[in-house]
Amino acid sequence: MRHHHLAAFGTAVAIAAMAYVPLAGQSEAQEAADAEAAWTMPRLPDGQPDLQGYWTTQTFTPLERPERLADREFLSEEEVAELQQQLTAEGVDPLRRDAIAIEDPEEREAALYQENRDASYVHYDNQVWLRTPVPKGLSTRRTSLITSPPNGRIPPLTPEGAARVAHEAAMATVFDGYETRPLMERCVVWTHEGPPLLPPAYNDIHQIFQTPDHFVLFTELATNPPRIMALDGGPGIPDAIRSFGGDSRARWEGDTLVVETDQFIARRNYRGSNRHRHVEERFTRVAEDMIRYEFTVTDPTTWTSPWGGEVPMMRTEGPMFEYGCHEGNHDIRHILEINRNLERQAAEAAADGASK
After folding, report:
1. Backbone angles phi, psi at 96, to 5 degrees
2. I want to staple 50 with a disulfide (CB 3.0 to 4.6 A). Which of 42, 141, 147, 161 is the partner?
């Protein structure tokens, strides 16, 4: 196959990327203990862990475990090596995040390249404009970012949650006015922004700032403003005040920063959940180049049980670039005009058919 043999640079990059993936045969607990013994936590003048800097969560690891991996929580060392080689090869489309779900290695490799797509697929050359200096690969041996429940998948929806998901899907086909168009189409808010913080498709950099009384998380690919979280332990905002990003309150538990968020606006659906969602996030610096990010999502009106996961945040280089998503808002007029034209054409065709 054309891309089966990697250039020396691609191999070197794959080996470097492997540094982020725990080796098989060692327990994660042992690895953590070894790393802790050889590394000293950097701290701010007030004694708190220093989490500042640029971090990336880019990974091909899927949010939910592929069905083909069944109850397997971790990939083997051999599987990780094979996947790292394929995923970090030059020419790979960084948007093919479904690649791990493909079992056959040759089929997987063919799917990774944009040039192999159906001829009707028209898009930017993703491997050119989305490839990062350290190519996206695997950041963990886990088979999914979700770690709870044990099957690595989001729990079933409640009847109420399923109804919201069905309603949102139906509304995506309605073009009555700008109010009915999806929030992502209008560049109002993206699903990955959360919280929880999940890897976006690209521009996957997060910048952290700290002061003794505030923690700030600034995400590159975001329409919400940076999350500015007070560390004073004060009460949250009144229940009547809600927003797309919710109200986040932070506190230190030892060397782990714990953030709890609620007060989401009802209009903003997140996989069927809206105003009743509660998210707990935990940021723990575990190495010079890594923060362990953990999250738990709870909404009994949407899912039959809470669910959560773990996403490695890896040290990266800045700067971040301004993300200005305005296409949907600028083009909403044309989106609606096109559908008015289609409606008129359908009405004229119906009238012609009735007159014959």
Report:
1. -80, 65
2. 42
Cβ-Cβ contacts under 8 Å for 351 (sequence gap 6 or more): none
Structure tokens at 298: 């709870």
**Whole-angstrom Cα distance, residue 148 to residue 243?**
27
Q: What is the DSSP string of 57-78?
A: ---S--SS--GGGTT--B--HH
pTM, two decimals, is: 0.84
| In-domain check, residue 324 | no
Alpha helix segments (H runs only) across the chain:
8-17, 28-38, 77-87, 105-111, 126-129, 159-171, 327-355
Residue range of the domain that includes 285 = 45-60+160-319
Contacts of 134 (CB under 8 A, 6+ apart): 13, 16, 17, 316
Domain count, the chain: 2
- Alpha-carbon span 262 to 237, nearest angstrom: 10
Residue 56 lies in a domain: yes
CB distance 13 to 86 below 8 Å? no
